[in-house]
Amino acid sequence: MTADSPHEVTQLLLDWSSGDQAALDRLLPLVDRELHRLAHHYMRRENPGHTLQTTALVNEAYLKLIDQKNVHWKNRAHFFALAAQLMRRILVDHARRRQYAKRGGGAHKVSLDDAMLVSPKRGGDLIALDEALDRLAAIDPRKGKIVELRFFGGLSVDETAEALQISSVTVMREWSMAKAWLYNSLSNET
Amino acid sequence: MKPERWQQLDKLFHAARGRTPTERAAFLAEACAGDEELRKEVEALIAANERAGSFIEKPALEVEARSLAGEQGDAEAESMVGKTIGHYRLIAPLGSGGMGEVYLAHDNVLGRRVALKLLHAFFTKDSERLRRFEQEARAASALNHPNIITIHEIGHDGQFHFIAQEFVEGVTLSKYLGSKGPALNEVLEIAMQVASALAAAHAKGIVHRDVKPENIMVDEGRHLGRQNHVKVLDFGIAKLADLPAAAMKAEATTRLLVNTGEGRAIGTAAYMSPEQARGESVDARSDIWSLGVVLYEMLTGKQPFVGGTSQDVIASILRDDLPPLPKELPDNLKWVLKKALRKESGDRYQTARELFSDLRDLQGEMQETEASVGGPVPLTPDVELAGQTRTAAVREPAAPTREAFAHATSSAEYIAGKIKRLGWDAIVVLAALIIAAAGITFGLYKLIGQNLSQTSKSQPKPEVSLQRMKIARLTSTGKATDAAISPDGKYVVHVVDDGQQQSLWMRQVSTSSNVQINPPANVSYQGLTFSPAGDYLYYTAWDHKTPITLYQMPVLGGASRKLVTDIDSVVTFSPDGKQFAFLRGYPSRGEIAVLVANADGTAERRVATHGIDALALGDPAWSPNGKVIAYPAPSTDANGKTLFEVQVADGAVKPIGSQRWHQVENVTWLRDGSGLMFIASEGVPSPSQIWYLSYPGGEAHRITNDLNDYLSMSLAADSATLVTVKSEQVSNIWIAPNDDAGRASQITYSKFDGIDGISWTPDGKIVYVSGAGGNLDLWMTGADGTGQKQLTADAGNNSQPSVSADGRYIVFVSDRSGTNHVWRIDLDGSNARQLTDGGGELNPQCSPTGTVVYQSSSGKSNLWKVPIEGGETVPIIDKTSTGVALSPDGKWIASGYFQPTSVKIAIYPIEGGESHRILDLSGYNYFRWTPDGRSLAYVDQTKSSNISSQIIDGGPSKQLTNFKSDLVFSFAWSRDGKQLALARGTVNKDVILITNFMGQQ
Question: B-contacting residues of A 8-47, CB under 8 Å?
């Protein structure tokens, strides 16, 4: 088994959750590797139509990082929550480092037609979203949790429902309001 | 924010979201009375909800990886700077587009700056694609127009393929709009210059195919009113760039995009014309739509059709009316926008030149107004129109009422359509006949058996040409049920059904004037026919009580006259117009007769008699030489219908060709007698389409090929113009908590989801039917719309799924063997097994004990059962039945049965025997047991937007849902009874006129 076998990642996550900060240091390169693997795929853009494959890759990456199969069912909900929280932290940190490197130099070009993937004003910017999500969670913790689980944790609606012990319909309902609120909040920035 | 206020906001957000924009405003005004701040907050959230699109719908890991990719791409692009490709030295990266990276470059030979596009490996790897791409780009490079970007060179240097084009110091229109809201005058100017560019390209036969703000450059450096202010990029190459336009060729492909939903795809989808969104071929009028969307966006700051995924966007383009335009816009401008954004390309501006003229006139009017009040007077741009002389557009009178009706479809129409689709039209009219004569076959069939195999194969190919077919929509109320064109092609008469009453309308084709000739009344009109000379209109009317009556009305005005009482078909005239033929059923004798009478209804005589088989005969058509009358009837082996001809002189009957259909209607001869055209469906779940049958050869060809139903067909005397009613159904799956249908949310977005059945698995997934792939197939989805998976493929039409109690199997109807039978698959779609092999089976339902109850239409319709593991089929109920619903405990069967003028529902024990209860639901479309097993839930015919329930043991019926619009096609409760899945949507029926469908004309 290589270092990024699902089993090991799960163990690292559990270690981290029980206070082992060193586990985080060992997790970071694993997430980094997945990020670069995906980025490489997006860059090649050999066939812009093959989005299906892209999604499969993302799902696969999540599975590698957050593999719930190896977790005892009683811990699943707890594990989901932890994993999402951790992914959030790692990804936002990653975005910060990137942002910092960019400010250090290197002109960035304008994309002619790629629609913004995250915020209407600040494309690809997880940092602003992270901040807005904190504000949302302060008003409505459950909505904040749902966004964290789904967006950062990559969980499906059903998994989110399971993790929070609520119905899928409630998840969808809360998600729509949270999404609108966050979008509105980010649109009003800058 | 205080918790109470947040909760209030949350509540109002969901309540407002479930309402249409019009309802919403009134709702919020009332709900937030006095609290302006609250209203604004809800509105901001609703607006954000509509605009959010794919925002945070993709996981963060992907978002971050994409950002990383973008940066690495930047770095890669940077590394290209300084290199020379061809004779161009790369100076700086400008950006990236769908086709490749764009650089600012220096032309070393001519010493000028150019924009150099380096094509992606995607293009250059495939030599055929590259060749076509270069060919297309070369055609576009021949365009020479001030508003079209100039292509200098298309070439390659080693592995690099490039396009060198004029460098414009400006920004894309999307960026331009992002930074400021342009003034009205400026909007007009930009739109005119784009229209002008399109007109020039269209004149050279080049369609842009991807008009959107990203492909329009605005030169901010220059002042308004000067040439070259706007430049349109990338003419004609979109289709080869594998942008979503090309990727979305098939609905199935689109479905893939839904699940993966690229942000860019959504951006592009928003500008697609309806025909483009459907993957049909496009022409110049598609560009006009796209420009209309751009114009709308410039004027309102938002796109007219939006959604969270490209599929949502497409659904909105195809389904939704143009949102209301801001009041402050000039009326003429609203009119221009509406005309550019008509769903049917035939109703739109036909040329970019017309659109340009109207925009210019508008600008002129505005300048006059402004000049008179001393405002600024911008210069008029000097735009040449590709060698065309400018002519003022002929302004049609604005018809605001047409749009208003577009999506209101009555329940009765839907039912009429459904019944028609299932081939039950005859049942309603002749219900008594069918019951009386069930199983009896006699009459003429015996005489004609041998001729079936002798169809001539040496006939020349029919002259039906699909490629050149032109289609124009004549109505847009969505409420037409029948239509006919006058022999001279000048008038079209049609029936409008408002859900309760029907009216007759006469439309002059050339002027579009539309006159009501019979006011709304509680009758059903059918069989609209003009006399051969075109002076009289004949039609049948049924008051739902007495037998159907034939009327005659002078076309130029005057009272209707009753000609024949008791008629069961359309009338068809002899070539000289002196006589007509029709059908009449004699229930007591079990016969249907072909009769001939004088044009004034006198002197009836019989020419042929048929025994009444289940679905009996269809509309007769008298041949142009007067010798034969053609009509559809059950084929000799009682397996589908065939067209027959009867000699008027001696009553001899023989089939024309051997093609079988499930249902055939509206048979019409071509003028020269060389063939017939008619509406036919190939099976119960197949749509009614327009067909051609050569005569006497009998070669059949389908003229239309889509998933819509065509409800009538009529030819002008020259056989060159055809009028039909096209019925378009849009259906999608919605899901709601059982106790609150107001919180229903849509989970699928193809046009055809759930159209023929829906069923839950024990673990909360939904199995449904989708027509997205062309055939009807079974699909499965999670209750949140994720994990959509196709279960059947490449095996005929598959519909009416019922998941077994243990969740192991799905039982359904499939015509993969040629006839509808009950089949079974495992939940993952594997191990298909046929369970029944009768003459045609429908509506299978799984009981909790492993029995499948179904309806059989062989011989006589009744109910049967078969073990789900396979085995002997056993009859249960020996009474003509339609529809099956099993009670949750598996002890009772609910099934409809026919009465002469209505259909009631009987509740039988599953062992068979007498009915336990009879429910009179005063008309229903679809019924299922409620989860508690005490009531029957059904879609009421008169209120078919909603589900009602009726307690089996009596009591008043109760409405369970409260939808304000759209129709419910089918529904099912989850196994725990907590969630309700519904197939909802619209059915629009409009009269369309088709020309150029015959090659020789």
Answer: 31, 34-36, 38-47
